[in-house]
Fold:
Amino acid sequence: MITTLLTLEKSLFKYENCRDFHFLNHILHSDFMEYGTSGQIYNREETIALLQTVQTDRPIIIHSSKILKLTNTHWLLHYVSENQESGIISNRSSIWVKTQSHYQMFFHQGTQTDEVKDLQEMIK
Structure:
């Protein structure tokens, strides 16, 4: 499951997916919301509009990740990312929902941090 959800997360780093309204509409749950690293809160429409301004692939790598099963259809994904262009490191969390046909991101939060930590050691 972690591989599937990380692949979906990484798909949002790609220019062609960020510019594709149908893709974003498909992957973001209708009740989606995000707490950005800036502290700003975004709803689904604002997130789609923001992602559609992306001009290139976002050079983000994932250093560490951990998944927690919340229910049979909901998962909490934690990961540490680093933007290779800006050097910004973020602790990120997403809640993913399994619908009848696919997975959708229900919630996302990014919090800027100073260092990469191993989530396997941090979250037991």
Observations:
- The helical segments are 2-11, 15-18, 21-27, 44-51, 119-122.
- The longest strand covers residues 103-113.
- The mean pLDDT is 93.
- The CA atoms of residues 13 and 48 lie 13 Å apart.
